[in-house]
Amino acid sequence: MSYSINTNIASLQAQEYLRTTSDFQAKTINRVTSGLRIISSGDDAAGLAIANGYRSDRSVLTQGVRNANDGLSTLQTIDGGMNNISMLLDRARTLAAQSASGTFNGDRSLLNSEFSSVITEVDRQAKAIGLDTGGDFAKSLAVFIGGGRNHAGEASTEQITNGSVSVDLTNSTVDAKSLGLKGMQAIGVTGTDIGTGAASTSVQAIVEDTANKGSLATAGFTEFTFYGAGFSDNDKVGIAVNLSGITDTDTLVAAINNAIDTAGNGTTAAATAFQNAGVRASVNTDANGKKQLTFASSDGAFQVRAEDRMANALMGNYTSSSNPAGKSLAVTYTGGVVSGAGAGTWAANASILVRFQGAGLSSPVDLTVSVTATTTTVTQAIADLQTQVANNATLKAAGITMTGATAGSALVFTNSKGEKFDVLVAGDIENELGLGSFRKGGASNDQIEYTTITAGAGTYTDTQTLEFVIGGQAKVQLSLADYAGVQADALEAINAAIASNATLSAAGLKASAVDATHIKFDSTNGTHFRLNAVAQAASDAFGFGSVGVAYTANTATTLGHDATFNSGGAANTALGTNNDVFAWSQLNNGDEDQTITVSAPDSTGADHSMAIVLKKDSLSAAGGMSGRTLDEAINYINAQLQQSNDATLNKVVAVKEVDHANSAEGVRFLGSLGSFKVSVGTNSGAVGITDAASGGPTQGAVIASETASGGSVADISTRDNAQTAVTLLASAVATLGSAQAVVGKGQNNFTYAVSLAQTQLNNLAASESRIRDADLANEAANLTKAQILQQAGIAALAQANVAPQAVLTLLRG
User: Fold this and answer.
1) Biggest alpha carbon–alpha carbon distance for the chain
2) Dist. CA 580–CA 659, nearest whole Å
3) What span, in angstroms and rounded, lies between the C-alpha atoms of 340 and 428?
4) Shortest CA distance to 455 belongs to which of 389, 380, 546?
5) What confidence category does residue 524 fall into, taking pLDDT thresholds of 50, 70 and 90?
6) Which residues pair with residue 333 across a beta bridge?
7) Res 58 pLDDT > 70
């Protein structure tokens, strides 16, 4: 064994052990005094990370329990309000049942006054608990509680979803409108009277009026047509009201509702949609005691149209207070003078196409009149056309009829339902019918409007005038000169003339050679046009015929009195101070597409939007011909809204209506939503749907809907109304019960969620304790151990420090 005094190894070792013992003692004291096993991350880094995660989860769950309890309290408050509304409905049903009794001989106005105050209180209570339409809680309420976990393969956001409890109160509103006690109502003309007290315009007087009877499509039945979301245009729902036994407003309402029930029980989707709208007829009594026929729906926006003078008069659109005849709805379309004598014939075989468009037709109706040269007389052709018009079911349903003509007179077509329409003709190049001598075109030479037309053989050695009609624009004439038989010179001159004319150049018209003797006109942008060759020379120098006459536009009488009635209480697009409609002019050129965008928020505030493109060209299959007429455009818009399968947009419908000035037809959008917007797109011709009626820019505006006045409110002022109210209240009680069930389910879900969260909290606390908390029994033993080791270490260090003194013994020797 060696001895040294420079380095005291024993002392150093004793010091290290003493330091280790002191650290051990310090940690033990910290654990004993704090109660924690992990004081710093150095104690157990992995354990600390896990424990901190548990602690954080506990914080979330603790707040989550508070959230759930807050949600539970909110639902309990809502539940209390619903109980109050339930008692209010009980009182309302009592009053309605009392008024509905045929033996009640008291003052129904007193009953109705209390009934109205009850309905008002229902609305107040619904607002107080936030469950009115658009209320604070009328949405899906997601309460985050915590404790959620991700499933394998799920996004991290699933942890939030799984840790939340949702209560969807979107369809659980309990105001009077939601309960079906308030709704949308189309009411007859203000100030009119069809009650028994009216001197000349009572229901009985209207039903017995000769002019009204003469307007009926089917004897003994008057007709109304309804338009709404899911039942419009081709799918509109008509009712035929049996007039037998109708003597007053009560029997009238009963007959109408029977017809409504029959229509709603149909097997089509439109019939089902109409039935779901719940439209019912009733009678309104105004402040002056005058009575008007009304139609009401609890939750569906709609338009009702009177289809004959009888129905028009019943809606208050009668001639005067002393004349019960309904205002005339007739609109006529008059052709030119029939040029040939009745016995005259055509010089050549012809297949004459006659097109009807407008008048509520969602697409044109084409008829063909075939004539044989020198054999078919004008009289025979007119009779053939008249028979076809009378026998065509679509035209008959649209109310279109034809009056025959003789030589020197004109063909007259009539629409009995007050809607504008046009009659287009092609193939009668001799103009025997007086409707124009336009040529047929298209690849098969069988079209009234076309994007291409090919001429016969031409010599280009004479003059000729060609007339073009593009859409709804005025005709454009091209005067063709004698080009001395040079086809190229003729084409150059024609195309130069087209280029210098704004209408023809916008239509993309172009003349080109088919071969050495034939030319054709094409539209390069898909524009449909019509061509008329005017006879100015005996020869057919350009191959388009030489017997035509200059086109003179046929005439239509002023629109009939508007017979449409929109439901008040619905959201609608109302333009300007007159609450006017969107104006309409047909699209002309193939590249004048117009985008109409409808957007609306759902009950949660999320926006739903759809862009609908109106077109008038053959270059696109989707909506390729949706802009020729207003009816065609409305039909396409409604089809797109319904086919979107969007529950929000499905509640918007476009309807046709005469403008405020009673001079033109336009379009209005209706909806049972709280609000929606319609954006009117721009195009180069500023045609299609425009908002010019509002006094603003013609296109490019975004029009926000507003609620139309005149919504319906259940009342019990009459026995009939009281009986209707009894039915409505029975449905309201069921609706309220469904809403209460949703709230009750939500309360239970919150209770279950709190119970689970408490269990999770307890287990998380236990897990965290096992990792973080100190074992005090073990730490007490460690503390004793540390104290003994420390004392021993100090003693040993003292001995080690004096050990080098032994070397002095050697030195003394």
Assistant:
1) 169
2) 6
3) 12
4) 546
5) very high
6) 413, 556
7) yes
Q: What distance in Å separates the CA atoms of residue 365 and residue 394, rounded to the nearest whole number?
A: 8
SS3 assignment, position 315: coil
Phi-psi map region of 233: left, alpha, beta (phi>0 left; psi -120 to 50 alpha): left
> In this structure, what token pair is assigned to residue 200?
């000349």
Query: How confident is the model over 747-763, as a mean pLDDT?
Result: 81
* Residue located via tokens 């004993």: 32
Distance of alpha carbon 409 from alpha carbon 424, whole angstroms:
18
Distance of alpha carbon 373 from alpha carbon 203, whole angstroms: 56
Q: How far apart are the first and last CA of the chain?
A: 19
Please say whether the dihedral angle defined by the alpha carbons of residues 78, 79, 84 and 86, taken in this order, is positive or negative.
positive
**Amino acid found at 343:** A
**Which residues are within 8 A (CB) of 327 and not within 5 positions of it... i.e. 6 or more apart?**
309, 312, 313, 317, 318, 319, 560, 561, 563
* 655, 646 Cβ separation under 8 angstroms: no
Identify any residues that bridge with 320 across adjacent strands, giving them in sequence order.
Answer: 323
Contact 529, 470 (CB under 8 A): yes
Give the span between the Cα atoms of 344 and 692, in whole angstroms: 48
Range with lowest mean pLDDT among 342-351, 489-498, 619-628? 619-628
- DSSP secondary structure letters along 696-707: S-SSS-EEEPEE
Nearest to 732, CA basis, from 119, 116, 295: 119
Helix axes 719-772, 45-100, angle to 10 degrees: 170
For residue 603, give the 3-state DSSP assignment.
Answer: coil
Using CA atoms, how far apart are residues 77 and 73, in angstroms rounded to an integer?
Answer: 6
The CA angle 392-350-491, to the nearest 5 degrees, is 120
Distances in whole angstroms, Cα of residue 572 to Cα of each of 301, 600, 672, 786:
9, 12, 9, 87
Q: Rounded to whole angstroms, how far apart are CA atoms 98 and 67?
A: 47
**Could you tell me which of 433, 409, 296 has the C-alpha nearest to residue 728?**
296
Residue with tokens 């979803």: 161
Structure tokens at 663: 């001079």
Q: How many CA atoms lie within 13 A of 370 on its CB side?
A: 1
CA atoms of 519 and 456, how far apart (whole Å): 8
Identify the residue with better confidence: 349 or 189.
189
How many Å apart are CA 76 and CA 744, to the nearest integer?
A: 9
Strand partners, 292: 284
Question: What value does the mean pLDDT take over residues 53-73?
Answer: 79
Q: In 309-327, which positions are buried (b, 16+ CB within 10 angstroms) versus exposed (e)?
A: bbbbbbbbbbbeeeebbbb
- Note the pTM of the prediction, 2 decimals: 0.77
Please report which residue ranges of 661-813 form alpha helices under DSSP H: 719-772, 776-802, 806-812
DSSP state of 805: G
